[in-house]
# Entry
Amino acid sequence: MTTAAVTKPKIAIIIGSTRAARFADKPAAWLLDKARAHDDIEAEIVDLRDFDLPMFDEVASNLFAETQDPRARAWQDKIAEFDGYVFVTPEYNHSITGALKNALDQAYVEWGKKPMGAMGYGGVGAARAIEHLRAIAIELQMVPVRNAVHLAAGSFMAVSPMGEGKDMDAVDAVLAPSATAMFDDIAWWAHATMAGRTALDRAA
# Structure
């Protein structure tokens, strides 16, 4: 009896800030290294800067109507490639960035029935932004996982250019357990939801 090969889930690490002065690249690169060390997934950084997304201006989400703007369709095609998502986000006024909210709104079908996690950074590790993000993800039919990575307080100031500006290695011991737990969650749910989506496709 032979065992079929198990496809590794593809996970997008989505950089949710587009500001010229953003800090996101540093934690995103660290997070990608952690994802690549996880044997059960494949990961890729997806940068919102690389997509010339307009503000959402369709007649409806693509759950109800085909998207007309080719820039939005290019974004939908990209996120459709993945089996799960990890968002890297700061906190703006207790929520996520406008750029990230717009990117989330530009699709619906592609997000659904896939896990999502987050890494937040700032004074409270973007805790409130991540909670808001989870609520948005539920509406988009994603599966938010319990564990997240919060780069907060003294750890944030240690690596932030507003503080000591050290490499992420300086806070690795503090953050690595959370990253491992999050990617364990993501991998489990990615495999489960991949199997579920396959079963639904066969039944259709």
About this structure: The two ends are 29 Å apart (CA to CA).
